[in-house]
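Predict structure. Chain length: 760.
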Amino acid sequence: MSVSTLGQSVPQVNALSKVLGRAKYAGDIKMVGMLHGKVLRSPHPHARIVRIDVQAARALPGVKVVLTGEDAPNTPWGVHHKERFILAKGLVRFAGEEVAAVAAITEEIARDALDLIEVEYEVLSAQLDPLAALSGTGPQVHSGRTVAHDIQFHRGDVDAAFAKADLVYEAEYSTHAQYPGYLEPMATVAAVDPMGRLEVWTSTQSAFLARARLASALEQPHSRIRLHQTTTGGGFGGKMIEDANNLIAGLLALRTQSPVRLVNNRLEDFQACCSSVPEKIKLKLGMSREGHIVAKDVRIVADCGAYAGLAPEVMHVSAMRSDNMHRLEHVRCHASLVYTHTPPHGAFRGFGGTQMQFALNSHIDTMAEMLGLDPVDIHKRNAIRAGDISVHGWKIGSTGLVECIDQATQALDWQTKRKTPQRVGAKVRGVGMAAAMHVSGNRTIGNWDGSTVGIKVNEDGRVLIHSSECDAGQGAMTMLSQIVAHELDISLAHVYVVPPDTDVSPYCIGSLASRVTIVAGNAAIVASRLAKNALRNAAAHVLNVSESDIELVGGFATTPSLPDRRLTYGELVRAHIWRHGGEGIHVQGTWDANTVMHDDNLYGNVAPAYSFAAQVVEVEVDTETGRVQVIDSFVSDDCGKALNPLAVHGQSNGASAQAIGWALYEQLHIEDGRIANGEFSDYNMPTTDALPFLQSGIVESNDPNGPFGAKGASETAILPGAPAIANAIFHAVGVRIRDLPISPEKVLAALKEKQGAAHA
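Prediction complete.
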């Protein structure tokens, strides 16, 4: 009898350690002689460092080291643009930039030492407006460079297609920065081992990318750095490779030759962590009277803050990904990423898809109203199909987009609720929908989009899985355990995933681009089957039969020719070791997607699979206060195959909550270049009373490239939330809000303007 849990809802394999408080986060690590680090940050968005006096801080009893930019390596770091130093040298370019670092015997002493550091600044005028920067008005963030990245492409004959359209509509949309809001702020413990190597325990989404950045910025060989990914309390893109926390901890450890703990408080995390990229989007669509999209033109101005980081890739997604959701021929885009003297922006769940999907879905809803059509029909009419090659060369192996739309609209009784908005006094209800797509894997980081998984079968028959793919709460460890247990036909309890460790784990890119399930899942299948071959070989050797006669069932090896003999996996491993020329059963499997880097014209199939989602929400708008409440929500997620439905629903509902926050409540307030609401007490995230009972559904399109048909499910569901809410507000009260977040003030202003126009 099979013990497989594939397709079943199972709790996360590491859940017990978390609820019992046994899980080790980076901030939990204690070492003998451990010092505590603190960072002094610039209070100014743009200033010249005239003088730094650290004598009093260094003289404070208990302080072991005080470092400034003069003490830090001269090698700049960054993703593509190497433009940032571990500690500022000469100039600060955003309020919160790291100016000095202290290590002391207690956190309190380290904090007191910061107060003793005297910094003389020459305050300079700051560039806070990307549009002004683009026009050449005001100071430059980096001398000679205003634009960090520029994207242009043109497919088909856009102008001719617009000329033939029955309806052409153009509008502008504005999106804002959202803080990741993970439970665990950035934290690192760094130490120098007895051999002089730097050993780092940190909260990260990518152990090997983090190690590569440490090696480069600290001017150390890769092999002189060992990085452990500790239990990671959420990431949402914010813990990839853009925060300086582990760089500073590593530098302090190298200079003191002692273990150093550096944990951001929440304000520091707001200042240091990259929030999502704000964008201004001008969108022009042409449609036939039947609702077919015939032409698309987009202009994007994105704000990366003081340093580019991953923002170029984010803007790339905004510029291109939504085009592939529909059957389009004529598209044009110009996107510019602009520097400002604000805290850096970068990766966030949805990775640029949220920004453009807000604009696109709002636009389609508006045009549907103009044409007298149901937006549902427009989406379904234009939906890309399995087997299609998109306008940018993406090969669509599977899509459940239409099915997602049908599932979501049926769940919330779309047809009935669309007929007439419900009104009770000043409160009016309306419904809105939106659709979206995302990637599962992405060959744009470099010309490899694979994963390697190692399997070691122990002498007791239990299995260790070695992978450096990150589990940040999304269930990567559980997914790998389920696949390996299924393939080897053993209990899930007999499988353990070893936490990522760059000294012993195989190379992986990490948790990004919704890639872990498809790439690591496929690698786990390859490794499992290699392990099965080794087990069959051992069984054939012991039983003196052909390998083809060996059957592996329920953790045992059997053969029809010897029905009374069966060997446990533990016995097979021991037999495999204790023989002439023997060895343990320790195998590695690698899977790399059959995709290509896009060419110079940004054309090419960059992902092995593509995920789709649709969402319907019902909102209640208070016309007296402007307050918007989401009353009901249903998001449908095409995850290919739900290997663990419980995990998929958890990801979908969590994404919906983040989308509601982005649409209605959350916004980083930048005043004179400084974050004014860098605490949870001031940063308005949705609490349970602001959220409806979140509902989600699964569509299984069974992708041909995915493990057992599975593809990504962690990010897609965040994409349609904001436009679905905006569309529901329009349905309820007839006002279109194009500037996020949709605050009560904006709703009231729009209602007042609508009332004034009606009386004019």
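Summary: Residues 638 and 699 are 5 Å apart (CA to CA).
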